[in-house]
Here is the input.
Amino acid sequence: MSEKMSHEEFVKKAIVSLRKEGYKGIHTIYSGFNEAFKKYFEGENPIEATKKLSEEGKIVIRPVKGGVMLYLPEDAPIQATRGDDALKKMGLQER
Here is the structure.
């Protein structure tokens, strides 16, 4: 293998390569991402790396049952808060 990819390159390649047809993101556990990350980066923590990339705006993380989903920023679903939903139902915020 030639020079190792950066965390950003690896994560973005994983999102594109591991996502199932019809989905725009990957589940970090069910896709095998966490295990692959640890193998490729020799035991480094995928949670710390993805959190940093998310803070930098390079990827988007969404909590889901059993872990998190990783998305490229342009593919991430828009996430409304429960508070927004409640205000809309009460007629106190535009839809």
Observations:
- Residues 5 and 40 are 9 Å apart (CA to CA).
